[in-house]
Amino acid sequence: TPTELIRNFSIIAHIDHGKSTLADRLIQTTGALSAREMTEQVLDNMDIEKERGITIKAQTVRLNYKAKDGKTYVLNLMDTPGHVDFAYEVSRSLAACEGSLLVVDASQGVEAQTLANVYQAIDANHEIVPVLNKIDLPAAEPERVKQQIEDVIGLDASDAVEISAKTGLNIEAVLEALVTRLPPPKGDETAPLKAMLVDSWYDSYLGVIILVRVRDGRLRKGQRVRMMSTGAVHTIDQVGTFSPKLTPQADLGPGEIGYITAAIKTVADCNVGDTITDDRAPATEPLPGFKPSIPVVWCGLYPVDADDFEKLRDSLAKLRLNDASFHYEAETSAALGFGFRCGFLGLLHLEIIQERLSREFDLDLIATAPSVVYRLYKTSGEMMELHNPADMPDGSVIDHIEEPWIRATIMVPDDYLGAVLTLCNERRGQQVDLTYVGNRAMAVYRLPLNEVVFDFYDRLKSVSRGYASFDYQMDDYVEGDLVKISILVNQEPVDALAFIAHRSVADTRGRAICAKLKDLIPRQLFKIAIQAAIGGRVIARETLGALSKDVTAKCYGGDISRKRKLLEKQKEGKKRMRQFGKVEIPQTAFLAALKMD
Ligand code: GTP
């Protein structure tokens, strides 16, 4: 296809503003899929994505649209991940397009995530077409939202397209806007091949499928291509486009978006943002902007049943096959036995992997509290990255510790601003900016990531009754007065409960955890001391009284089947416990204990 007839675009929107519904409408209107093939929300094709209504992996579809000028255009719609954890993947998807549809729910207005993504699109030099969705709703206020787009983002919204993705109103106008308002891609057919690796995933028949955007040159079957970041060379088996089904083509030229397969075994060899070039006539310079993906949040995953260790290892390997940003390494814990230290791009990513392990692989797991990556500078001058609080060395060898900070943007209705600012301050936040847009406030804060990883989203949602929206990016590493807090049950340190916190909050958190554990650990036949300590100094203590209780005592010996049921229930409960010395701690205690409130 000549480049004048190609338009590459993405849709940027806040969660729930209607991105998937609009994408489905565009697919339906251009007839890329028959009604029968059209399942609800084609682009979100993983179960968990569907259930949670979020988009994780970028997906693409090629649409053929006969415009009012009589010409038939190729419109490549590239779906982008809808969550902050995947910001880098979003930036690569945007770099593969020339323009975006900015979808804003006309009854809600601009949200924090809309802003973050739209700024990324502006950075990528996109032509942006504002689209006001859900104008069928009685609460829709298109004029107010247009004004807001102009005030907050600084985009001209006078010719925003007003649509209802749900009823199908004005979808044609969106297609026309794509053709007339977005620029065609530029590229040099005769220059050495440069194609960007936008995404990749594993297919059990074809091996790894790579989503590419060609800049210069051509990709064809049989060509030997080189990944510029690693130097790895592969021979292309198949080249094609997404209809959204894989559709083989002879080749892909400048401006085109499609896929290649090359008998690649694992996505770990396919770095998002990498440049693919011709091995025999390579480009001299890669495309700009490549960054290797680095996990920022780590936690330990342990099988509840030690016999499941091999199964866990196999399952992690399978997940990694399809998710290069997920990392894991074997680890042992005195408290939890054999398991793995796992690294994630963020909290949602962590939650998704945990959920898939339990749902798809049927694994019963204990997860330790998530931790950020600390940089520990020893007195010897050596720097070590700390992924696990339990590995923190003795205080005497530590010169200082640095922790990662983020820059967060929070949008919230005025009524809840006070509560949100209090929350940010409690979490050691530093206000950078506070501005108003109508009756909504936009607060920009610098926050230590370790104050955010555990329950910041949940707390933010609860103090704002669900009205606050949140977005963040990694900022820098800063020295902090950080200490390791150990939890001792019956004088024995439980390594899986150790955590790192700022000294100013250590006492409060130590006390809170001891109090929680007191409620979470069932009473036993003897008294149990629950303590929090920094080094050898105990900072909090609770005592759990002894209790001797026969679970069957209430059955008066009469109903034997009821008695058996109770005993079985108790046995079942035991499987979910871990033994510490003489004390059993239920699995739920591990996560619940570290939730702050
Ligand atoms: P993520 O995948 O989470 O990013 O959400 P999304 O932006 O893709 O939103 P989605 O398309 O899933 O729509 C969210 C909800 O809004 C769904 O319940 C839709 O049915 C509804 N919705 C989408 N478009 C419209 C519209 O034009 N009018 C009305 N009334 N509802 C709509």
Instruction: List each distinct ligand once.
Output: guanosine-5'-triphosphate
Inertia-based shape: globular
| Mean residue pLDDT | 85
Radius of gyration (CA) equals 27 Å
Largest sheet: 8 strands, antiparallel
Low-confidence stretches: 48-58
DSSP strand content: 25-35%
Give the strand tally: 34
Task: Calculate the terminal CA-CA distance, rounded to whole Å.
Answer: 58 Å
Please count the helical segments.
13
**What structural class do the secondary elements suggest?**
alpha+beta
Membrane topology: Peripheral membrane protein
Main location: membrane
Catalytic activity: GTP + H2O = GDP + phosphate + H(+)
EC number: 3.6.5.n1
Descriptive account of the structure:
- It is a peripheral membrane protein.
- The chain is 25% helix and 34% strand.
- It contains 13 helices and 34 strands.
- Strands 11-10-16-7-8-15-12-13 form an eight-stranded antiparallel sheet, covered by helices on one side. The chain has a six-stranded mixed sheet with strand order 2-3-1-4-5-6, with helices on both faces.
- The longest helix has 18 residues, at 503-520.
- Mean pLDDT is 85; it is low at 48-58.
- The site of guanosine-5'-triphosphate has 20 residues, from helix 1.
